[in-house]
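This entry is listed below:
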Amino acid sequence: MARPMWGGKSGSAVAGCEQGAGGAGGASGAGPGGGRPADTIRRVRVKMSSVSAQGVVERASAELSRRITGLGLRGRKRSPGVVERMASALCGPAHAAPRVPRRKRLEPRPLLWPQFILDEKFLEKFFLYFNANERRTLAQVCTKWRDLLYSSPRWWNGLVAVLDCRELRSASGCCMQRFYNSIIRRGIRGVVLVSATDDDINEFIRQFPLSAHHIHAISLKGCTITDRGLEAILDHLQVLFELELTGCNEITEAGLWACLTPRIVSLTLTDCINVADEAVGAVAQLLPSLYEFSLQAYHVTDAALGYFSPKQSASLSVLRLHSCWELTNHGIVNIVHSLPNLTVLSLSGCSKVTDEGVELVAENLPRLRSLDLSWCPRVTDNALEYIACDLNHLEELTLDRCVHITDIGVGYISTMQSLAALFLRWCSQLRDFGVQHLCGMRSLQLLSLAGCPLLTSGGLSSLIQLRQLRELELTNCPGASPELFDYLHEHLPRCLIIE
């Protein structure tokens, strides 16, 4: 009964209201006792229900705009209305800033193999694993590798350009020009000319004019140039510091007197048949700044070494005399008196030098760091005693083919605390007992016992005590077996063992 009655009243109220709204006189003409409060309630309900959907949307849009642009009113707290609650549901609380989506960090794509082998950062590190000679081949792989290698002289340190003049005579001028340009690009400062004639020298000067201020070192090997050709090349190369003449049999001592310039600090004369005492005199007189002098001449005598004066004593530090067969202890006297500041001395193949000559060296050249007495058959254990007592700073000693060296002499050497490199190749009297002496040398890093016939596997196995050893040469040793090499490799893992 209640539901129909409420429904009937409700329906009549809505109808009556619509009618009253249609005629204003009917609504305003109600008497004081005729139910005015009911009419008021009906009008409020009708007004609330008459809020259109369009209005709600418009008010919500305005509120959303204020929220997004940060223009929402800030004041005393009040309860949110219907539209505000809709805005909060759609875009969050009013105090919360709108969320900005974060960009994902893009990871670099991995290089494909064709891109990887052309990447400059990779190649800069890759080329470090090769020496300058091996990089010559790498530069032929592709133009990218060539251009990168040619871009910096640091890839070619220590490399020299070798030109065989017999082949160059058939090469075109354009081809040679490209080669000479590549020398400049790579910063190569040294040139070797093989089998050159005077005409080849003139052609080199004509096609490579930039060499005048670029080439620092030149080597002439097996050349038939005359004094005139030598004079032409030395006049052309204005920044030449190093000169080597090997097997140039047309060069005379007069040519050396005419051509040598004071700029030269390193000179090598090897197997030139006309080089004798007067040539050494020219070197001593014309090269006051000479630092390194290497001479191999069969006809040089003790008198040649008398040409050196105190003029060279301050500069000359390296002297190598190879196979000077006529040199005796008197020549050693001239050396130690004129060149007291030598740090490197080689008397290799000077077969007339004896223990007395070595004693002069040990007593008068205290700055020596390297001494080579190989192929000196008159040197005995006594010479090694002089060396061990006086040359306290010696770091390298070469005694190859000194056939009179025994275990006693090696015992003297073993007391030298600064010795780092020792060469005893083909010392035919060296035995296992001498090797035992060597095992106490804690500074020794390089040792060669190649060709020593009396050494056994038992004696050589004791070398594992040399933990600091970096290179060991045992070629042509009858006592070295495969089992010995395996044993040495196991106990000396950081040592290069040459079998």
Q: What stands out?
A: DSSP finds 24 helices and 14 strands in the chain. The domain at 406-498 is CATH 3.80.10.10 (Leucine-rich repeat, LRR (right-handed beta-alpha superhelix)).
